[in-house]
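CORE FACILITY INTAKE
Project code: CF-77B
Contact: R.S. (postdoc)
Sample description: multi-component assembly, two entities in total
Requested service: structural model of the whole complex
Turnaround: standard
Below are the sequence entries exactly as provided by the requester. Do not edit them.
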Amino acid sequence: MRRGILLILAFAAPVAAEVKYNRDIRPLLADRCFACHGFDPGKRKGDLRLDTRDGAILKNGEGRAAVVPGDEEASELWKRLVTKDEDDMMPPPESHKTVNEAEKALLKRWIEEGAEYEAHWAFTPPVAVGVPGGGHPVDAFLGAGFGGLKASGEADRATLIRRVTMALTGLPPSVAESEAFLADGAEGAYERVVDRLLGSVHYGEEMARPWLDAARYGDTHGMHLDNERQMWAYRDWVVRAFNENLPFDRFSEWQIAGDLMPEGGADALIATGFNRCNVTTGEGGSIDAELIFRYAVDRTATMAQTWLGLTAGCAVCHDHKYDPITQKDFYSLYAFFVSNADPAMDGNTLLTEPVVKVRAGDSGRREEEWRAKEMKAREELAALEVKAGYLDPADADPRPEPVTVERVWFEDGFPEGSNPGAVGHPVQLVKAPEPVFSGAVSLKRGGAGLAQDYYESGGNPLVVPEGAEMFLMVYLDPADPPEEVMVQFHSGGTWQHRAVWGADLIEFGKKGTTERYVAGPLPEVGKWVRLNVPAAKMGMAAGLAVTGYAFTVNGGTVWFDHLGFAGKTDPANDPGVSFAAWRRSVAGKDLMEAPEGLRQVIKDGPDKAAEAELIGRLRSYYVQEVCAGTAAVLAGPRGVLAEVKRERAEADAQQPSTFVFRDLPTPRDAFVMVRGQYDKPGEKVGPATPGVLPAMTPPEGGRRPDRRDLARWITDRRNPLTARVIVNRFWQQMFGTGLVETSHDFGTQGSQPTHPELLDWLAVWWQDRKWDTKQLVRLLVTSGAFRRDSAAPAAAWVEDPANRRLARGPRLRLDAEQLRDQALFAGGLLVREMGGKGVKPYQPPNIWEPVAYTGSNTRFYEADKGSALYRRSLYTFIKRTAPAPYMVNFDAPSREQACTRRERSNTPLQALQLMNDVQHVEAARGLAGDVMRAAADKAGRIAGLYRRVLVREPRADETAVLERLLDGELARYRAAPEAAQKAVTFGASVPPAGVDAVELAAWTLVAGTVLNLDEAINRN
Amino acid sequence: MESPLLQHELLQTRRQFFGTTGLRMGGAALAFLKAAGEAGAAGPSAVHPALPGLPHHRPRAKAVIYFHMNGGPSQLDTWDYKPGLQEYFDKDLPESIRKGQRLTTMTSGQGRFPVAPSKFEFKQHGQCGRWVSSLLPHTAKIVDEIALVKSVHTNAINHDPACTFVMTGSEVPGKASMGSWLSYGLGAETSDLPSFVCLMPRFPEGSNGQALFSRMWGPGFLPGKHAGVVLRSAGDAVLYLDNPPGVDGSSRRAMLDALAALNGKSFERFADPDIQTRIAQYEMAYRLQSSVPELTDFGKEPQSVLDLYGPEVKQPGSFAGSALLARRLVERGVRVVQIMHRGWDSHGDLPGQMGNQCKDTDQGCAALVQDLKQRGMLDDVVVVWGGEFGRTVYSQGTLTRENYGRDHHPRNFCMWLAGGGIKGGVVHGETDDFSYSPVADPVHINQINATILACLGIDHERFTFKFQGLDQRLTGVEPAPVIKSILA
């Protein structure tokens, strides 16, 4: 072991060669010295910096310098390293850092050789040197030495096809695919397999997985209530983009700035979901400015990590200790993201604006029907208008007396033009046989904890009449009564008017005031009850324009219907009955529900002159479709219009939407935040890229740079990082470890590339090929390095445990998703349907429930049924505060923050899962049934198991071990047939017909053993 | 892939493991492991070894039991006795005290901030004469064992970031939890159980239960095997612990023997040391299948011990049961047990809710300390009690003498520690007359964590892990001195 470590060091730094600053010295200085003598002036001690040559050789007041090139004895750095005096010693004892003898020798030689510095390799653009030799370019760069290790030969074909199929699709090959490859003796057989796999739709799914780790994609908001959010269209777009081989530059630009690139169409907009994937909160008591700050910090750091391989997070609080990314650099990048149009508080709702619909519905045929109905209804209205005999009370002489009116504000849905939202499940308008008080539908609200339907934007305001009384019909579910019911009203931009019935548990508003008027006990359950509250009790005076309302329940289920105000009104000033009053009330508005030709005259208002003909049409529109006074006569056709409208809205609501990123019309100012505190703005900064990297192309005409410019700078050929960082991550995905091991950190603290010329050549080659990702991936997996046998002598594993020298082929434990998908595939259970809403397969009980917030809509896990249990793991619903245990157990990230490199742990909990999880047991049974059908003898069946899982044939000694296991289990199950019956009926899938339960149970255990083999858990 | 150092540790692990636990394995595994492993030193920390060089100094305790009272218990109604507040009933909190301090938006809109004195009676207890409210009659009996810190403060004002802070030393998700740090640094003294275990007892109906987050016991950047293992109160105690229906222990043993034999052949072919680890982990899984049921079976506990914890102790998922389970876990060599009890977020009806919360937990907390003491284990275990922040002196919502609510208050709250390395019967820190700000010895939450580490023999400043270009540590980048005055 000791020898091994020394050899590794020797490989990294050959003693004979010249000392290189970047390779040998910088990592040393960075770790031991830069914390106090580095880039950060705030932390710098003794006015000395060692991160630049100028700083290191600068003479102080006494004429001494830390480094005197060529003369270590005169160099203060050297003296301090070797002194025994604790006061002078460097690093100081209290730092707990030491420099060992080998390191001292390196520093000594470096000073002797002239103490040359080099620019950080990753910040200078990649240059492609010529391929050093023939054959596959990757292998040409790797050379033949392998640091003294002997290279393995090519893996056998069975291993190869399983390895490459797993790597490119995340699934094992089918038996037919394997057999075809094993039988293909012609030249290029392997390359043909690769090309077939690159054309498979599963390629996109497999490539999307690591990308979604970086994007931190999830199906919930991620904080506090951690309610569901809807943005799976973004996940599906990533899959599609890889499958369609969208050039990587465009793939990147759309995600950063697709909203500013209309030429990209709908997909470019969906792609901006990348910057909406961050965790958000709706926790009461949060401070908006703090959240806006945090979201922008997260978006900036994620962008930097994903494309630039920079861990910019440190610079949130201070100048980066080691990297020349200053705090100002960080906040200048942050300035691109801080003008987000999405709100600080996510509202705990499924769709937090801005969102877009993701595809047109299949409502084409119904649309024709609706139009025909509307046309007929309007014809009837026109015919009935005369009969209605409308007279504007404002024109009447004498003016009519005030009258008692009932203003209904909820009837068959929320008001025209409003944007309803919900906390808990989406808004549900239901028809009979569910309780409906009046009209065609009522509003149903239920769910655990606090749940709500509301609107606060769009629609006409309702003016509170004189002496008004609010009325509302409610129907409490006798089977699931709530603890409390609340109604709230919105005016002047806030919610300050509430009335509650029941337990008064909802902590909104100040108790005993109009903010929280306790109106009485809960009404009787199981019947429609009319609730009345004088508007004044809720602080609503006559004339107040109310702009929204909310129905809230605490636990239980309630139907709401027929909300409104009753009171006195002067008809001449009532927009509901007076055309003139209505025109005044809607002046200045874009009334989207009105016919297009009338919207301008409505907006212009009565004070602007208009043609008499136009006014006439407007008046007809009012009388026919708006005026409450004519409602009785026009009820028939108006009802038809309302019905069509509701049906259209329902169809619309069923079309999924997805979160997109947009900016506010006026950008927010950005500041360097002192010590990373949201409320301590310092110097004001504009959007700009870090000074240490090549500058971005200035926008035309002196325009303020926006995310478009940032996106183009990221994919600009002069950017030294992007292509290298991404190539390295693809390498990591295929080979297990990147050429740069710290794939998340290309800064000066990151590791050096093991094969820098190869990395640069690949980066340039890829860009020359217009960022063609499939070509790049093809190049990697067709290399000899990828195709080598992964077996190696024991000494080689000790000497190069992580296979950095690539003398053997990659041997990697499968990822969480690959393990589950492989089992489903082998068991014949896998459902290949792609995309859509996240699915909920089996999950042990009590994963969500013990941790979830009481009022969360993802508190109770309810597994799906049928085919949704067996979809690919990519489509599993991700609740970020309680991710699926079978994923986390195998190191899948929670998606709360960006992850560009997964760990590969090896734990007993993993063993328990693979042996006992119903998903794996069912898969083993499916596999057992399959091989039992295919062969009659034991050896044939065992061979079938090996072929299906490992592709290869079992050896005789392996067959013997499993036959022995089988015989023992057959005997045991024969003695206990009831145990066999239990074993074969576990899980939702049906055991194969006509198979003896005893045999099947025994074979299930044998098949499970094969699926638990280390060889099955790895791609070998 | 792991670093050479980790690989080396793994190899060591395997050697120790093979040397000590072979007797409990089946034939094939034993045969293979004998052939593959060398006879190593028989150490107790075989499966969960300590890092080389740890502990840094002589440890005073071996294990931690952490009662996390999730939601923010009111210090004013438990430990921080402010008799002078009675005179201030319903008077506005003086601006000289509040000093424009930021508030959550739940109360920042309130017109006034009326002082709500605690309605609970305080009495002095123990040799030390500690003032304790009538809500904690059992804990009042152990005040001479505990060090009370009255001046703990944190940075965050809302639950999610504050919980993340108290457990990981940062309010930004992604850092490692304290239990994971300790598992990583010290391993455990058992080969049959995980090194870090979490319990989530149920909490009273009607209390305001805030969310827990897996990051509170997550490994962050540390290797995944250091994640806290949740022992569940319903279903399998450990996820996927039970064999599927129709598979019994003998079948499992036979299967594992076959598996070990076949994996042994794979090792012969590939020579990948990870295969040896895999064989060892499957055997560990098998041992968990028997050690966990034994662990959760209280049948052999004497009645006197059960009585100490109270009548609910035998109900799975009760707080009392979790407290007893915690003792049984550390007794068996588990390094860290974290008990997360929810429901302490009393914005309204605080007296009622606090009453229920304390009733649910008071006896269990005190019983654990007494039980450890009577077994001579208290010197080896640090027991910690506290939430993620405290609560405001002014009332949220309607205020009467009998009823009030309190908002979040991160500026000062109370925590207590007891056991190994901790001095009993002392107080550290003092707050002003309104329990609004510390006036002596303020203690940042990271100092509490630094002190816990110190009890286990770890210098928190030297206990680092390189990640994202920084030497990460549990206690963050700002200085967080150990609270020496509460150390024994």
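Facility notes:
- Confidence is low (pLDDT under 50) at residues 1-28, 30-45 of chain B.
- Residues 103 and 109 of chain B are 9 Å apart (CA to CA).
Invoice: internal transfer
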